[in-house]
C-alpha cells in the first residue's frame, strides 16, 4: 500500500493504527491550534526537540502540507482527537466538522519512521501499535505551554540495544536516539503493562525496554496547559506523508 | 580565552570577528524582533533549517539565554546591526540603547562552530573572518518573511572535500553538510573576491570553494521583507555561548 493509498483508505473511513503501513514513508504526529497559539507550539518544539521535531507547519487555514501534495489534513488521518480547554471532547475518523479557518497544523516527526531502519538493521519489532507512557520528566516550558515528556517503548534484545541506538541517532528529525534504556521506574513508569496510550507489548527474557521521546508529548502539553482549542491525531494513528524515511537520515 | 572572557571583552568594547575565538564553544547568530514577528522568524527557520538552525529563543523582554547563563544579549556580542523597516540604521558595539521590552531574541547556529572539528580532522582553514555571499536561491517563505539563501565559503583542498562533508554533516544544528561544492556561478556568485559580508579568502591551486548555508540568511530576509524593527549581530561578529561544539555533534 502506498502512502497515498493509505491516506485514501483513512479518508474513506478506515480507522487503524498506522505502525508498519506504507513502509518507507515518513509518518507524522499532528497538532493543530488556533493561529494565536501557533507560536507557543513552535517555541515548545524548539525547546524540546527530541519529542517535538517539527517536519512542517501549515499557514493558517490551509489544511495542506508540502510533505504530501494533494492530501487533506482534515480527513486523511485514521483518527483524530478534539480538545477544548485541555479536555478531550471528541475522537473521530474525520475532523472536517471541527476544523477552523484559523488553525495552524504542526506536523511532528514520529518514531514509526525509523522502524523500517531498525528492521533493516536486523532488530525485531513486535506489535500493531507501540506503547506510550507519560513520564516524570518535565519538558522545558514556554510561557503558555508546559507538560511532561511522553515516551514510546520498544523491547530490544540486549545484544542489539547498541545497534538500535546507532541506527536511530542518525534520524534526529524523527526523535533520534533513545532518551532512556532499561529501568522504567527511573522515568516514573510503574507498570509497563499499562501504557497511557497505545497497546502494551510483552518484554521477553533477554530483552531490555528502550524508550524514545514521543510526538504525543504536545498532546500531553495540551492536557496540562489547556489552550482553548486543538485538534490532534489519536495516538498511534498518524499522518502518512509522501516523504521517505531516508530523507530524514543524516 | 574562555567564552565568558570573550563576552566580557566585547562588553568592554572590543570589536572583532569571532572566528577562532574561545575554540570549542558554540557560536551563534542573533536576530531579535518584536514579539509579534517572532512567530514568523521561527516559522522561517523551520522552513529553512539548513541556514536557520535555532539553538535558543528567549522569552519577550528577556535578554538572557540558557546557552550562556549570566550573559547579556544586549552587550555581549562584539558588534550589532539595527534595522528599521528593513534598512540598516546603526552598527554599534552595544545594543542597549536600541533594545526594547518586546524583543524576542532568536539564536541561530553558526558554521564557526564546526571549524574546530574541521581543523581537528586535518582540514586547514584560513582567514580571520569568513566570506559570505547572497545567492540566487530563494528560501521557502512564510506569509511575512522571504529572502535569498546566504552562504559562507571556505576553500578546501580537493582531496579533503569529502572529509569536510563527513565532518560537518554530523553537525546539522550548525548548518550541517555543505549546500554546494565548486562552481560559484551556479549559486549566482559572479566574483568570489567580492563577498557580500565578511572578508574574501584566496582560492589557491588545488582548492575547491565549498559553500555552507549561513546564519546571516535571516538578516537577508529582514532586508527583503522589511519588518518594522530588528537587531542582529554584525556578520562574523557572533555571540559566543558556553555550549560546547561537541554538544551539537550527532
TrEMBL record, chains A, B:
It is an enzyme of class 4 (lyase). It comes from the Bacteria. The keyword Lyase applies. It comes from Kutzneria kofuensis. Belongs to the D-glutamate cyclase family. Signal peptide: none annotated. Keywords: Lyase. This is Putative hydro-lyase BJ998_002996. One of its GO terms (molecular function) is lyase activity. The keyword Nuclease does not apply. Its EC number is 4.2.1.-.
